[in-house]
Design a protein that fits this description.
Helix 5 packs across helix 6 (about 320-330) and helix 7 runs parallel beside helix 8. This protein starts with about 40 loop residues before the first strand and ends in an 8-residue tail after the last strand. Helices cover about 15% and strands about 30% of the residues. It is of the alpha/beta class. The protein has helices spanning about 90-100, 235-245, 245-250, 250-255, 280-295, 320-330, 395-405, 425-435; strands at about 45-50, 55-60, 65-70, 80-85, 105, 110-115, 115-120, 130-135, 140-150, 155, 165-170, 185-190, 200-205, 215-225, 230-235, 260-265, 300-305, 335-340, 360, 380-385, 385-390, 410-415, 440. It contains eight helices and 23 strands.
Length: about 450
């Protein structure tokens, strides 16, 4: 895919404007404030489970909970207890200071459970659970604010960080992504510079259905352990952040029917996922099963680029990707196994009469029948004429219509983010696929 997996992205640093507003599109700056600058007088402030103070956001369907913590700028000499409360005036202050107009989530839809006690010698309380739920009178796809304030004796509340505005986007009334026409849309998203939640921002104009059916987290890696001679799954800090915070970045997608897939890409060492021997195929498949089960993912996607092939222990001198796909399907028959029809993963023969690949995804613009490359794969599993949004290489309407006419399974888009996700690009294939144009509803930038 011509993407350097090892690129390092600089996180945005916000200093004097650390309490900058969350925009109407719910884009948050990349600020983590577990520690507050010490002051001569001990101050108390709120953070959520992600380490943010002042403002954060989450998407929920029907109901949800999030842990909050009370913090002090210095260790307490004795046990202290603080109160976290719903405070409408906190939202008034926030809107006035930031030029926003968020509506409060009604107080009767918010629960606060737990006592914010900080033990002697500590600076952080045990978790206080903030719960929230939907109601019939809430707006469809509406964003509301839960205004929170912390108070207590023994320490002064921080004037800047004593309030917390928690933005909750309620997608309960939104339809799911199942369109029922036979074509799906797969978003292979570069997580180094994108937020998976951005896939929730594209819907069909009339039905309101979500456009995206699958989200591939691109990308985890396959790496080689020189000590053991075995391969293993490595995930960089961006994939790790998404996985470890699945309730924020993964659950909302799945609640609307989207499948979330872990990408596996070679990582510039000898670990080629298409050239593992049978034993390593089986071991790696079992490791992937454990990862998918642990994080509640729906499948795995293989892309055999950026590896340094050679005559190493544990590898073959012939393409053995079919065996890896087979072992994955055998280890986790309830999960999807997907392949990039390119380089070492451009084919997979049947093993013991089983085609291990559920979806074969074509390279940018490539369009041809894949029956010879993946025997036994149905046309619905052949994803044609992928688009590269970052480069502006977009599927044409006529090609999308051909996919429908010839009964193929759909198309893939790569590298979707707020900078390149124009609704008109989606309409190129949603009109032929579903008879509807695409509309954009909000935006989510990377927020970590």
């Amino acid at each position: 895919m011509n993407i350097n997996k090892l690129k390092t992205l600089a996180l945005a640093v916000i200093a004097a404007s650390a309490l900058a507003s969350c925009s109407e599109d719910v884009n948050l700056g990349s600020v983590n404030e577990d520690k507050y600058t010490p002051a001569e007088k001990q101050l108390v402030f709120l953070t959520d489970k992600y380490g943010y103070s002042n403002c954060d956001s989450i998407v929920f369907n029907d109901k949800g909970t999030t842990d909050f913590f009370v913090n002090t700028t210095g260790a307490s000499t004795s046990e202290q207890t603080f109160t976290v409360s719903y405070d409408a005036s906190a939202l008034e202050r926030y809107n006035a200071a930031n030029g926003t107009s968020y509506e409060a989530l009604p107080e009767n839809l918010v629960t606060i459970d737990g006592t914010a006690t900080i033990a002697a010698g500590e600076q952080k309380s045990k978790a206080v659970k903030i719960g929230y739920s939907t109601a019939d009178n809430l707006k469809k796809d509406g964003t509301y604010a839960i205004p929170l304030t912390v108070k207590g004796s023994g320490a002064a509340t921080s004037a800047e960080k004593g309030d917390f505005i928690y933005l909750v986007r309620d997608i309960t009334k939104m339809p799911n992504c199942h369109k029922g026409t036979g074509q799906i849309v797969i978003s292979c998203q570069e997580t180094n510079d994108a937020n998976p939640l951005h896939n929730l921002c594209y819907t069909l104009k009339e039905s309101g259905k979500y456009v995206i059916d699958q989200v591939i987290l691109f990308s985890g890696n396959i790496n080689y352990n020189v000590v053991t001679g075995e391969v293993y799954n490595f995930n960089n800090e961006n994939i790790t952040h998404v996985l470890e915070n699945r309730e924020k970045y993964i659950t909302p997608l799945q609640q609307k029917g989207m499948k979330v897939i872990l990408g596996i890409l070679c990582n510039h060492d000898r670990a080629c996922c298409a050239y593992l021997n049978d034993e390593n195929c089986k071991k790696f498949a079992l490791e992937l099963k454990a990862k998918l089960d642990a994080y509640g993912l729906d499948g795995v996607f293989f892309d055999d680029e950026y590896c340094n092939r050679g005559d190493y222990p544990g590898f073959t001198n012939y393409n053995n990707f079919a065996r890896l796909a087979y072992e994955c399907k055998k280890a986790m028959p309830d999960k999807l196994v997907e392949a990039y029809a390119y380089s070492g993963t451009n084919s997979a023969q049947q093993i013991e009469g089983i085609q291990g690949v559920d979806y074969a995804i074509q390279d940018y613009g490539a369009y041809y029948d894949l029956s010879g490359s993946y025997p036994g794969l149905s046309k619905s599993g052949m994803i044609q004429a992928s688009s590269e949004f970052a480069q502006g290489r977009i599927i044409s309407t006529s090609t999308a219509k051909r996919i429908v006419d010839e009964g193929y399974g759909g198309t893939m888009i790569f590298s979707l983010n707020p900078k390149n996700g124009y609704a008109s690009r989606f309409s190129n294939f949603t009109v032929p696929f579903y008879g509807e144009e695409t509309v954009q509803t909000g935006s989510y930038a990377k927020d970590w």
